[in-house]
């Protein structure tokens, strides 16, 4: 059962812990206002484990450079904990990520099913 995450007024989400990975479903704005809260909350969840995470950003309306920076830091944190990050995206998010050429580093996926297969097959 997904648990509600306390993030910000403009960024909401849930966390679902599976046997060997976590799914975070986020909605709203991933920007300078919300990025530090996102980093802290999800960073703590990575520490608690499991370290393989899926960030479902398919319902995100906007990502700015601060939001991208938070995603990069979360990928590095997961990797340092022997985990990985899969990012489920939408056209707006994909366009922003591709603009700065981070699509491979952030492991962009078109669907949650593909992201889950990637972490299950790890």
3D structure, described in words:
The structure is a single chain. It contains four helices and six strands; from the N terminus they run E-E-E-H-E-H-E-H-E-H. By secondary structure, the chain is α/β, with parallel strands linked by helices. The protein has a single domain, classed as Transcription Regulator spoIIAA (2-Layer Sandwich), CATH 3.30.750.24. Strands 1-2-3-4-5-6 form a six-stranded mixed β-sheet, sandwiched between helices. Helix 3 links the parallel strand 5 (85-88) and strand 6. Helix 1 (35-48) packs parallel to helix 2 (65-80). The mean pLDDT is 95. This is Anti-sigma factor antagonist. GO terms for molecular function: anti-sigma factor antagonist activity. Belongs to the anti-sigma-factor antagonist family. Residues 23-83 form the STAS domain.
Layout of SSEs?
Elements: E1 3-5, E2 11-17, E3 22-30, H1 35-48, E4 53-63, H2 65-80, E5 85-88, H3 91-99, E6 108-109, H4 112-120
Parallel strand pairs: 3-4, 4-5, 5-6
Antiparallel strand pairs: 1-2, 2-3
Pfam family, one: STAS
Protein name: Anti-sigma factor antagonist
Organism: Moorena bouillonii PNG
Helical content band: 25-40%
Gross morphology is globular
Q: State the helix count.
A: 4
- Here the CATH topology equals Transcription Regulator spoIIAA
What would you give as the CATH superfamily?
Answer: STAS domain
Family: Belongs to the anti-sigma-factor antagonist family.
Protein name: Anti-sigma factor antagonist
GO molecular function: anti-sigma factor antagonist activity
InterPro entries: Anti-sigma_ant (IPR003658), STAS_dom (IPR002645), STAS_dom_sf (IPR036513)
């Amino acid at each position: 059962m997904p648990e509600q995450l306390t993030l910000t007024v403009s960024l909401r989400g849930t966390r679902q812990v599976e046997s060997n990975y976590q799914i975070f479903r986020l909605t709203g704005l991933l920007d300078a206002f919300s990025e530090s809260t996102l980093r802290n909350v999800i960073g703590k969840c990575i520490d608690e484990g499991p370290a393989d995470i899926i960030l479902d950003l398919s319902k995100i309306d906007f990502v700015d450079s601060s939001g991208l920076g938070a995603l990069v830091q979360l990928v590095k944190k997961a990797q340092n904990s022997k985990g990985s990050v899969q990012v489920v995206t939408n056209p707006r998010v994909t366009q922003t990520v591709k603009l700065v050429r981070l699509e491979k580093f952030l492991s962009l996926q078109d669907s949650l099913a593909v992201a889950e297969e990637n972490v299950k097959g790890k």
